[in-house]
Amino acid sequence: MSTYINTNVPFKVTEHVSNANGFLLPHNLYSKVKTVATYPIKEFYLQDNPDLEDFKFKMHKNAFLNDELTIQAQLIKQHNNCYLVNVIVTKPKSNNHHETICSALFGFSLQKEYLKETKTAC
After folding, report:
1. Is the pTM of this model over 0.90?
2. 101, 55 Cβ separation under 8 angstroms
């Protein structure tokens, strides 16, 4: 695969995705990250939600109520009958630096019955 497909999605921590103390609930972040991970590969699949083969998800820091996060998803390569999508969630800090909140790696199935017939797919 010669091109990289990137997606950046803003995500604000609200009362609906945090606990009573204002901490972002990891299962809510995982759900959003999993959805955003499909964005760079949707054009290759016939169905709306490609089949998830494998994933790794790691929380590095906590996020809190009203934090403005960015979810960055990047299609990195085709590997062993799946597309690999890397996801990083960051929060802006001072001096143009970003703090990593979590990272994830998702593998999506490359089974022929799910793929569109295009020249852009690997």
Report:
1. no
2. no
